[in-house]
Amino acid sequence: MQILILQGLKHEVTFLCPSPDGLHLAVGYEDGSIRIFSLLSGEGNVTFNGHKAAITSLKYDQLGGRLASGSKDTDTIVWDVINESGLYRLKGHKDAVTQALFLRDKNLLVTSGKDTMVKWWDLDTQHCFKTMVGHRTEVWGLVLVSEEKRLITGASDSELRAWDIAYLREIGDPEEPEPKKVKGSSPGTQDTHEAEDGTLEMDEAPEDRILTCRKAGSIMREGRDRVVNLAVDRTGRILACHGTDSVLEVFRILSKEEIQKKIDKKMKKAKKKAKLNSCKEEEEDLEVNVEMTLQDEIQRVTNIKTSAKIKSFDLIHTPQGELKAVFLLQNNLVELYSLNPSMSAPQTVRTNRITIGGHRSDVRTLSFSSDNIAVLSAAADSVKIWNRSTLQCIRTMTCEYALCSFFVPGDRQVVIGTKTGKLQLYDLASGNLLETIDAHDGALWSLSLSPDQRGFVTGGADKSVKFWDFELVKDENSTQKRLSVKQTRTLQLDEEVLCVSYSPNQKMLAVSLLDCTVKVFYVDTLKFFLSLYGHKLPVICMDISYDGALIATGSADRNVKIWGLDFGDCHKSLFAHDDSVMYLKFVPKSHLFFTAGKDHKIKQWDADKFEHIQTLEGHHQEIWCLAVSPSGDYIVSSSHDKSLRLWERTREPLILEEEREMQREAEYEESVAKEDQPVVPGETQGDSYFTGKKTIETVKAAERIMEAIELYREETAKMREHKAICKAAGKEVPLPINPILMAYGSISPSAYVLEIFKGIKSSELEESLLVLPFSYVPDILKLFNEFIQLGSDIELLCRCLFFLLRIHFGQITSNQMLVPVIEKLKETTISKVSQVRDVIGFNMAGLDYLKRECEAKSEVMFFADATSHLEEKKRKKKKREKLILTLT
């Protein structure tokens, strides 16, 4: 049962991460943004913008206060979830970051990337103190197990590598002897040497070392391809991974007690064996050494085979010892499996499956019924009929790989053209396949129903165009007649046929060929009439307008050409899409047409004025086909993102100027996001301080601050003038209030500036201040001094103040006018911050006291319950004893 839908941004979701408390969900998007949704309300109030490419990894720390995000832009950013701001950006990887993990007890972060590196970061100093170079291929995943003393990594080969981690306090004294150096190395440098397995390892100088990593061994996977996902359950006892296939490999990590039991058992066996082989005199001096291998500590449990390729998975270890694994599969299914890992031969059972009536592969053809109610969609294995109004699948029929289709007049049967060149005729009432006809020797690329509705034409890869008529034949299984088709004529051509289309008057037939031309023939005599040439690549789609005056062709060269069908002249060539034009269809009874492309967009065009009318965005992958309803009110489209989207024409008038303006705004927003960050004097380009990125929201926030400062300057100047006038006149004259200030409740201009600062999102605050010109900073500093003295919003003001001081340090210190302001700020800030700190300390002490009181009360209640229970037992015992005495 569906519980909740989280309405996100228009971009594709690339990563999900639940918070440790289970109340929030962090969602990473393709454009690099992150949103945090509340699972109680379903709202996403927190948005982080810092990455320039798709999010590839998200991970919360143990308390859920920090979030680490990795991206294809090679950066790792640590975000403060509570304060809704970025803490620091960690640069070091040379390719996409694949995984990031916080350590539980130490302020450390470990990340892996496609650059074959695993990096350890000290979050106190925000620098990488260790790089593991023991992988020859991309590192796709990593997990920490055995109380964070072992790291397991998965790469592009069939090995899971295990690394033993020893922390500084566990290594010994600081005076521990230095590791062996390569000849010629100097102290304090990092040296590499070749390990036993041929990989490079790195030794660090002891003074720089926080931890050491030594390779413990490898676990061989059964899969030969790369690791896609590697994860452990919350207990850290079950390890699982999968590749690009449909098999999840499950391993069990033994606890210390289980490992000790194994060692004792092995010792017993080894001693017994040694006693048999040795003399009795030597029994007392017998010593046996038993070593545990990595395979003994991490045992293979079983493999879980799913019904399709795995996209992602998650594990739940129940208190009863049962392991549950939930899978999201490549074909849009969600499956739940359970097993008992403690058994010697655990059996996996599929306990549940979530499926909806969609296709399991890409839809390659769509068609509307004549009454606009039913929609046909066909893919590699099935044909589905959908009710347009309810969006429910009402009929599913198995078929071969479908490429084209249409409803037979009357909407009781459908015809499907397949990749093997067959025509399949289905009856919708029963869902049965009525007939299969071998129409072409190669793929049957296109079908076109004749305007008189008595037949249709097919075009295939065997360089032929075939004409078919509908006919009624006697059914072998019943006395009634059924629909069938018979071939009437064949038109043989020199090139492979890609698309065919009848003219509305049924006099012309347009045929698109592999030689990049479109040839037009007379239907009655099949004589050649016109050749439309001009495309650089083959024409994939075309359509003829309702009046037969125009033909529009869409090609793999990304262009759409509009031709006159009378003389074959090209009226206009339009650069339509950023990739191949996959489908083109005229709106009935108009010269408007829609195109769909591999650039994920659907566009509407005017064939008379040669104008782009609107763009429909929604798909995340290549669009394969679309269909326009006979009424022109609906469009349905299919894409490689496994979705069908239904578009409805609204009654709202479309104004082209507004559309152009919206398009320009969208382009401007994209250009703003691609701009480089402003250069700050004294900061290096890869400085970890700046975590955000410039967006249209941050630019607008900076503009609001500038407008507020301008208003403050105007109002203060007015007030000074007003005072001078009143003084000269010798009487008080009321000053008219600014309408903006009146809207905020007739507040003062300085209070209005504070309200503007409060209204800026916490995640966008630094970036807004970064693009603010320095000419506004002196006024802001003076206002901050006033606000801090009043004691309002100390935390927000200090955050803004310290950021401005950092980025404008040189200009502020060189400005003599600002020296007294900074001195005052120093005094007021220190005193007010110490006051706030005292209040917070007092509140925390109070909360601790209340916590202790609650715990003490609960303990008293627990003991009271226990004592009353004991007294009850004693009373019952006495009653039983009395009964026994009376019976005896």
From TrEMBL:
Recall the GO molecular function terms of this protein's record.
snoRNA binding
Spans annotated as Disordered: 174-204, 668-687
Annotated WD repeat ranges: 48-89, 90-131, 132-165, 356-396, 437-471, 532-573, 574-615, 616-648
Record's keyword annotation contains Hydrolase: no
Q: Which Pfam families match?
A: Beta-prop_WDR3_1st (PF25173), Beta-prop_WDR3_2nd (PF25172), Utp12 (PF04003)
User: Where would you find this protein in the cell?
Assistant: Nucleus, Nucleolus
Q: Which InterPro entries match?
A: SSU_processome_Utp12 (IPR007148), TBC1_cilium_biogenesis (IPR051570), WD40/YVTN_repeat-like_dom_sf (IPR015943), WD40_PAC1 (IPR020472), WD40_repeat_CS (IPR019775), WD40_repeat_dom_sf (IPR036322), WD40_rpt (IPR001680)
Q: Name one GO biological process term.
A: maturation of SSU-rRNA
| Location (main, coarse) | nucleus
In which family does this protein belong, per the annotation?
Belongs to the WD repeat WDR3/UTP12 family.
Designated name of the protein: WD repeat-containing protein 3
What species is given as this protein's source? Neophocaena asiaeorientalis asiaeorientalis
High-level lineage: Eukaryota, Metazoa, Chordata, Craniata, Vertebrata
Please name the gene that encodes this protein. Answer: WDR3
